[in-house]
């Protein structure tokens, strides 16, 4: 009888696990159909080959890319750690006055002429870490990917250059970058620079790099944080699921009773059968 009760408890736990699995599947299925809106722009969602949920375009892009060099899908260029404050516009003005706060209070692209080549002085390394990052520019529930997450999705999608980057679920493009020193735009249509939330060394932060001309078409170099680069957001995590079965104690189950008012019959194999 003890064996029967033990097996019954295992069966109940298996049902709980199945319910959770089905629910998680429904949450994942919503990615690809759900949309999110921020700063008056509505973004679609896609499931990458890495299993994560990503926005379907770069922040600021007016549409999903139709080609790897589709300019309408390039989007904004952010300085690492800054929020959506206007500086990300490709036509924003510039200033050489560094900010002493996390929110500069203006829409200018801050040119950094001296080491550590950061728009903020002193530096703050915790501006873009996670959904609760001080200046997280992504829609609610989304954040910047880490360097490891960029590497994982690139590997899973088989991204080896601009062609495979565009054909991937993320449809990555080559928006170019904005130089930290003079604020000028470079490499539009030739290279893609995508920020990671990860910090590297004293002055830098890594990017996921795409290039149409280099033999090494994907790389993860560290660049100055005052550089303007693209942002692609990833969902932070699936919601935590709490399964509520019943207030009855599992230990109260006997060989002949069950919560579902069914009868447990010992069929002689050591496994109970519910009728």
Q: Provide a count of the helices.
A: 3
Domain module tally = 2
Helicity level: 10-25%
- Average pLDDT, all residues: 83
Taken from the alpha-carbon principal axes, the silhouette is: globular
Distance between the first and last residues' Cα:
17 Å
Estimate what percentage of residues fall within beta strands.
Answer: 15-25%
Reading the helices and strands in chain order gives HEEEEEEEHHEEEEEEEEEE
Number of strands: 17
Poorly predicted tracts of residues: 15-29, 239-248, 256-275
Please state the structural category. Answer: alpha+beta
Q: Main sheet? A: 4 strands, antiparallel
Radius of gyration: 25 Å
Structure commentary:
This protein is α+β, with helices and mostly antiparallel strands and 275 residues long. It has two domains: 2-26 and 245-274, no CATH class; 36-234, no CATH class. The chain has three helices and 17 strands. The protein has helices spanning 2-30, 147-157, 162-167, and strands spanning 35-38, 41-47, 53-55, 78-79, 94-95, 109-110, 142-143, 177-178, 185-186, 191-195, 204-211, 218-219, 222-224, 228-229, 234-235, 264-266, 272-274. Strands 10, 11, 12 and 13 form a four-stranded antiparallel beta sheet that branches. A three-stranded antiparallel beta sheet has the order 1-2-3, with no helix packed on it. Strand 16 and strand 17 (272-274) form a beta hairpin. The longest helix has 29 residues, at 2-30. The protein is globular, with a radius of gyration of 25 Å.
């Amino acid at each position: 009888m003890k064996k029967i009760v033990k097996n019954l408890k295992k069966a109940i736990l298996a049902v709980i696990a199945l319910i959770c699995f089905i629910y998680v599947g429904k949450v994942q299925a919503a990615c690809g159909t759900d949309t999110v809106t921020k700063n008056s722009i509505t973004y679609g969602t896609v499931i990458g080959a890495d299993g994560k949920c990503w926005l379907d375009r770069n922040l600021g892009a007016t549409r999903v890319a139709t080609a790897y060099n589709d300019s309408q899908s390039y989007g904004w260029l952010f300085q690492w750690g800054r929020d959506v404050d206007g500086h990300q516009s490709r036509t924003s003005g510039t200033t050489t006055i560094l900010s002493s706060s996390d929110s500069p209070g203006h829409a200018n692209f801050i040119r950094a002429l001296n080491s550590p080549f950061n728009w903020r002085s002193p530096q703050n390394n915790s501006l873009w870490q996670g959904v609760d990052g001080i200046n997280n520019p992504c829609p609610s529930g989304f954040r910047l990917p880490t360097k490891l997450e960029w590497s994982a999705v690139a590997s899973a999608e088989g991204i080896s250059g601009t062609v495979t980057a565009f054909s991937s679920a993320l449809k990555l493009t080559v928006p170019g970058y904005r130089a930290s020193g003079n604020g000028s735009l470079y490499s539009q249509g030739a290279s893609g620079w995508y920020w990671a939330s990860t910090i590297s060394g004293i002055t830098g932060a890594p990017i996921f790099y795409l290039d149409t001309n280099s033999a090494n078409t994907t790389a993860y170099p560290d660049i100055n944080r005052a550089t303007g680069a693209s942002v692609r957001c990833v969902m932070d995590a699936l919601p935590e699921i709490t399964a509520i079965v019943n207030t009855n104690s599992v230990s109260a189950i006997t060989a002949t009773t069950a919560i579902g008012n069914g009868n447990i019959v010992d069929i002689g194999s050591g496994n109970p059968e519910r009728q």
